Amino acid sequence: MKISLTKPVLSSLDTFLKLIDELFAYEALPQKVEQTATAVKQLLATPELGQAWFIEVEENGENCVAGHLVVSYAFSLEHGGKVGFIDQFYLKPEWRQKGIGASLIPQVEDRVMNDGVKALSLEVNIGNAGARTFYERHGFVPRRQFCVMTKNLAEKAVPLYVAS
To answer: Is the pTM of the predicted complex or chain greater than 0.90?
Structure first.
């Protein structure tokens, strides 16, 4: 089995968005479809924001897309520069527990290091012991003294009486 990461292009946007839909459904996360599509287009057009890949598997001479992976970039004084955040790592259920993830982690690390990334972080559902064990086996260390917190920011409406 050959496992590789390939960059999606705008012509493959529908396939990419379908995989994201599957991930959101699997994780029971709310999704704003238009917002997600806009964000994916922005990511694909702006490499400084991060990288996105299809996870492709070649088995018995056949190629198929088994999932996707997205790494977003930020800057950290703590880590001395650019950092990556694994925003999405999705494998279709039929491709799980086959060693694909173990093969991909070093590939992802190499690719983001080539982009100048100093550290790689991710979020794992605290109840997902299997995922936590997997990531710990690959060198990710829980930061038990930290709690990830998020605040969604809404765009402010421009009053109609404001002249431009």
So the answer is: no
